[in-house]
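Protein in question quoted for reference:
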Amino acid sequence: MLEIPISFLAPGQVSDQTYYSKSGEVIIKKNVVITPQFIAALKQQNIESIYAEGSSDDEELNNILFPEIDESSISDSATSTSTFLPNLQAGKEGFIELIKGSINTNLDRLISERKTEDKPSGPAYRENASRMKRSERTTTYKSDVISGYDDALAKTKTILNNLTNGQSVSTELIRNIVVKFMKLFLTDRDILLNLSLQKPNDTDYLYSHSLNTCLLSINIAAAYGYNETQITEIGMGALLHDVGMLLVPKEIRFKQSRPTEDEWFEIQKHPLLGLYLLEKIPRLPEPVSLVAYQVHERENGKGYPKQRSSRLIHNYAKVVAVADVFEALSSPRSYREANLPYKAMEMVIRMTRQGLISGEFVKALLEYSSLFPIGSIVELSNNCLAKVVQSNGTSFAKPSVCVLTDSKGNILSEEDQYTENLSENTSIQIIKAHRSNYFSNDPMLGF
């Protein structure tokens, strides 16, 4: 059963299924309009959560967002998460100590006083963008794109490690990585999204996660109408958003079971620890720190570290939060395989319905990536297999695909592969999604 806190219920919402009490009694029937009086009645009865029949996807999403604490293994002598703050206490006490720090207090004031701009302004960057045709991509071009990604990943790893080791890092080095992919967006945004599905074989996923979150954030921000400077800052924030996680002990980060109470507080420390690391970057734009600080906050106030609700969360952080969650769900972890990109997108959409992440930025992601994200392998109603290579605006379920096999499953030669626009050819639909490396690990297949 999937647990849903009562705080997720909104007046006027229509129940999409039947919900039960913990003992199995029906609390809300399907297609019932939820009223303020009904919510108040549940609270008066001290009912804090309701339950629904959940799929394994729902259970996984619930565990990612609200990890249960294994109270039987709480330790009285947890290891400190940081060597550069030697006096920082472990667990809850250390978390509270960080919360009271001056760095995040100043950022809170900036947001509450609306002293930092986070709405699109000026010329939208997307207005200068074009889309490259498959026939225009040469073998050399595609090889250069892959090499550029690998180079950026190596630089990202160096940047994050240097910051963790207390070394200063050039703002321009970070900016140049982001600007490089912004330029690629202008000429070939579809291949940029395809790159974001890359899952390099690194023992520590954090580096590729940071870079892929950056690529996704660039696309979301551009789709939403931000200008060049704003997208640069959002991209920089995305690249650095999880740097504080490198200060969380690996035995906690890679743990395959649920965290203990102290371990969960160590994880919640990482946005705050990240702020201390970002101080090592001279002339870093202030919004970049805001992203790292608030990316794990949630629209309904159920995130961390400060449990801020929508009004007090910077929009740049909301953009990166959508990218962060989608990238995490579509990537493998030590305790599970990667979700299919389509499944990951479904779960992200579900999070908007639960009031966790911003629906407007999820819509922006869908507009440029589609319900079947670019780079996905899909099965068509004519029995052919294809790769999603282009979105079609708000026709979220009808992207353009490159057909890779005939109806009998025979792989087509590169010369015989062809593009099918499913928003125009309505006689063909996608009937099933497959893993991205279904045919091979070549990310440029179909492009």
Observations:
- The chain has 15 helices and nine strands.
- Residues 139-164 form the longest helix (26 residues).
